Amino acid sequence: MATIKRFEDLEIWQEARMLSKKIIAISKETDLKTDFRLKDQIKASAGSVMANVAEGFERNGNLEFRQFLSIAKGSAGETRSQLYRVFDNDYISQEEPDTLVNEYEKLSGKINNFISYLNNNDFKGTKFKQL
Prior knowledge:
The protein has helices at 11-29, 36-58, 62-88, 95-119. The protein is mostly helical. The model is unreliable at 127-131 (pLDDT under 50).
């Protein structure tokens, strides 16, 4: 595994960003744009996935990073749930939530795998390095 120096280099952050862009597009291109509360909720949960990956990485500590990754995984689940609500309100067709839910499930799995990797790694983060 290559050394990652920036959160932007993390595959899970890149995927979260791509999925967030898809949610934003739905919020602009469908009648969801007039359902302000639901639109804001799904955009916030989708954005929370990438934001928590970034914030956890920037904390420079293994324990904190794992905690923020756990929050990111929870936000991915929340976004999946919101996608069902968007579908149930007839803002998108059946194929859209099926595809996006599947992509968010895959992302959750990758986040979980990364948490497992960190759980089995002795790296404590740059703020714990000896001088």
